[in-house]
Amino acid sequence: MPIEIPVDKWPGTVNTVTLGATAADGGTRSKVVTIGGEKSLPFMHFENETPHRPVIAMEMTATRPNDWSQVLLDAWGDVLSDPGQWAQACEEAGADLIVLMFGLNDGNDNPITPDFAVESVQAVLQATGLPLVVLGPGQAEIDNEILVPIADATKGERLVLGLCEDANYRTIVASAMANDHLVLGRTPMDVNLAKQLNILMTDMGLPLDRIVMDPTTGALGYGIEYGYSVMERLRLAALQGDAMTQLPLLVNPGYEAWRTKESKVGEGVPETWGDWAARGTHWETLTAISLIEAGADVVVLRHPDSVTRVKNAIDELMTLEPA
Amino acid sequence: MALSGIQIYKMLPQTNCKECGFPTCLAFAMKLAAKQVELDDCPYVTDESKTQLAESAAPPIRLITLKAGDNEVAVGNEVVLFRHEKKFFNRPGVFIRVVDTADEAAITEKVAAASSYNVDYVGLDLKLDGIAVEAASGDPAKFAAAVSAVRSACALPLILVSDDPAVVEAGLKVLDGEKPLVLGANSSNWEAMADLAKQSDAALGVAGDSLEEIADLTVKIQEKGVEDMVLHPAGGTMGASLALQTQIRRLALKNFRPLGYPTVAFAGDGGDPAKESTVAAHAICKYAGFVVVDTFTPELIYAILVLRENIYTDPQKPIQVLPAIYEINNPKPSDPMLVTTNFSITYFSVANEVEGSGQSAWLLVADAEGMSVLTAWAAGKFDAESIAKAVKEFGAADKLDKKVIVLPGHTAVLSGELEEELPDWEVKVGPREAVDLPGYMKSVLV
Predict the structure, then answer these.
(1) Which chain B residues are closer than 8 Å to A44 by Cβ?
(2) Does B87 score more than 90 pLDDT?
(3) At B23, which CATH number?
């Protein structure tokens, strides 16, 4: 019998955002990454072409991480102490872009300084040609203190700076605007809070094609269903034409999954949890795949094996090849 | 699509006889539309209307229940595309596949391990639903032997995978009195498969290269008297399967009956265990009714079962944890007593931060009707009285050397009242956000 396949026609489109700039565009990146542009729900290729595939960012820290799972420390080895080498290793592992996180200190128990922060960013920029996301430690005063000089020192690179939150976005947005960078806004698992922050940031004059949003998600087993549904609702609103939800989505399955007990703890856990290292990677991979199904444009991961698996899955999701 | 009260009213006698117990036929129709009464309460409705109303009342995706003894797995009955629109009702059945060409001892070992697997997740006992036995041998006797081996190793419902009716028949003979899923029918074998399914009351999987082909088959098979079917759309890349699963769900929800059945997805079809986790996650998120996995390792199955639980949680109803005192990292009497609410995400945020930091604590979870700290406080469900009640009910004082309790920072305002409620306790105010707890415990509490 002939079947008419139901096709959704949406009035809205997700913004197209380009991360990083090559020399031709005022930066030094050898590659740029373009995300967004969807006119349909994720991977509905029979309705519309998906202009840009979801990409994988890898998270690294400016100083050797002191609270990461041993499984991750074992997987990365010595590069963890050298931001440049670590960034290169991320690129080799298949990352499309790098997320560089700062903590509150400089690795020698001294409070972080603007000079240290700028040097770290420059070391990473020199070591890899990938676009870069730079995130402060998440305390308003210190974020502003380090992100402003970083933005100044890397003018034109189209870095993504963050985190912009409702309590602290003005300084970051202003310095991104002044130096041709982008920003990342984060709100806690709520459609309206996400919209509100986007309104505040664009009110300052920052164009929408320079904002990426992180709606926050839980990990598998730790509230992922809330983040999953908030993302689905944000994407549906975007396609329905709500401009303040039409930002590409960046989420952190690596951070979320690797702080769960399942990934972090290897001893004294139930036998039914199985092998620790394999479990950690599954936890990260399943979290990432679910969020990609819900509309993620960027997933930030931590383990190289997860990158391979998620990348292969995205390859598959991007094609309609029958068996 | 379900009919409205007005549409139903048009099919009723419209005599307002009141014998149904309602003053008018319209009032009765409204109750019918809300599914609060049964059509049988109307003594005068015509058979024609009965048929029409029964059809419209049928769920858009048929509920399929597989059974083996007391063990059952029911899938289908879904009514939405997105969980936030209402909820996903019936968790997909997760099955482990064994192949009849494998050595019998290996089959028995895998099945015994898989079927006895159970893992605790927030107080829920998560388990696998059954075993899929695939006839790779093509030999009826060998398949029957494999099915017998599986049946003697476990009591869970089965899926029999073969497109050869003779092979399936041999397998079904072993499973007397059960309702397995036979997988299944295709355009060349459907008549014989439909006969077998009908005789043995098995559910029948229907495979096809296109939705048209599958829909044609389900109509013909239904005419042969088989009602319980499961759709097995062609494989292909994850993108291809997502398109098919989405199209089937959309058509079914538009009441296109020939595709109004749950689906089955094989996560292991690519032959790569690393890939299997991603395909299984994909199938759980996007609409599979049965997910068949090849690899049985506890760490993979645990992750898959937890994802299924999360995606099928009712979005309208917060998941709650049981109010109690929870132990984090084997606390000693000198460790702090933290207090929070029984909203699962609140509990997880707090427990996870403390657990991840490696520090030990007692976590007192008070009954706040499943609300988060701020919401519960605003609603009066998390106040000094309820916290004091929890302290007494769970014997918090007996766990500690020093009676010190730590309130969430957002409810600092409660500290005075709590001191009145608990005169012999010291009340401290912790950080507002769970993420700051480890730092607070390290710097302030020690």
Answers:
(1) 243, 246
(2) yes
(3) 1.10.15.40
Question: What does the pLDDT read at residue A278?
Answer: 96
Give residue A266's domain range. Answer: 51-316
* Beta-bridge partner residues of B364: B325, B339
Average pLDDT, rounded, for chain B: 93
CATH of residue A58's domain is 3.20.20.20
B9 and B35 housed in the same domain:
yes
Domain shared by B342 and B412, yes or no = yes
pLDDT tens for each residue of B326-340? 999 999 999 999 999
- The total number of structural domains in chain A stands at 1
How many Cβ atoms from other residues are within 10 Å of residue B429's Cβ?
A: 17
Q: Is the pLDDT of residue A185 over 90?
A: yes
A310/B219 CB distance under 8 A: no
pLDDT band at B445 (very low <50, low <70, confident <90, very high): confident
How far apart, in whole angstroms, are the C-alpha atoms of residue A77 and residue A79?
6
Which residues, 6+ apart, have CB-to-CB distance to B140 below 8 Å?
Answer: B164, B166, B167, B169, B170, B171
Inside any domain, residue A144: yes
* Tokens 């998270």 sit on residue: A59
CB contact under 8 A, B275 and A229: no
What is the pTM for the complete model shown?
0.88
**A-chain residue closest to B117, CA distance:** A272
Structural domain contains residue A32: no
**3-state secondary structure at position B328:** strand
ipTM: 0.97
